[in-house]
Structure formats: structure tokens, C-alpha cells
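Entry 14. Ran structure prediction on the chain below.
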Amino acid sequence: MRVLFVSLGGICRAPIAEAVLKEKCKKEGLQIAVDTAAVRDWHVDEFPHEETVQFLTDKKIPFDQKESRKVRVEELETFNFILAMDAETVGELHRLAGMGQTGTIVRLLDFVVDQKEGDIPDPYMTGEFNEAFKLITIGCEHFIKQKMKRDRLF
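Output, C-alpha cells:
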């Protein structure tokens, strides 16, 4: 199982989602390859935003201190799930894929049936890291539950 988290710039939401999913999978004993990318080149070669780093450190959630990079079209074929943080990112991913074969491209919160909000607000713009973290955590929990119990993919 391979999961790619994608956000606009790749320095806030995607790194948080990667860290949260890895931590939850570790606790569940699940093996999932997880990576992150961006659809925009705004922060290519930059490490996660300093507030992202501080937030995850304060929460005692281990994370990879790696540079942001732009998603590559071939990755859309090799990852089982490409989980976007918002509808704009989903649209960009579909444009990039064109008519090519891809893994499942959806918003992370699409796995949360009763969730009112479909997009995870970008804390780079809002400063609301707690809200983004809460929604990402809910999304990751529902993703794991659905994939473990319904699809038996793990």
C-alpha cells in the first residue's frame, strides 16, 4: 500500500498528514509507504514550515524533515491513493494525470462520511494549525478504518 499526500505548497498540511498517518499505522501495526508532494512549486526544496515543525514537535509526533517537491505524473500511477488536502489540489492532480492511469485521487476528508467540511484549510494562510491537525487526524483515522475493515488492503 502506497499513499501520497498532496497539498498546494507541501510544507504544512501534507507533512502533518504524513506524520499523523505514519504514527497511527505504527500503533496499529500496519505497513504503509507514505510520501508527500505539492502541486505548486512555491516551496520546492524548502523544509516543512517552521510552525509545522514546532506543532508536530509539541505534539510529540515524529516526522520526516524533508524538502518539499512537486508531484510527478508517474507518481499518480505508482501510488494506490493520492490524498489531497482540498478540492483545488484534486483538480490540479486530475489535470496533471490527463487521460493516464492513476491511483485513487480524492480529498483526505472524503473518507469521513459525516464530515461537513471537505477541504482542510491551509494553516500557512490561516495560522490555524490546530484545526488542520484535527481534520487531518480525523481523515487519517477514517482512511485506516475503511481500508482495514472494508477493503482488507493492509
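The mean pLDDT is 93. Will compare against last week's run tomorrow.
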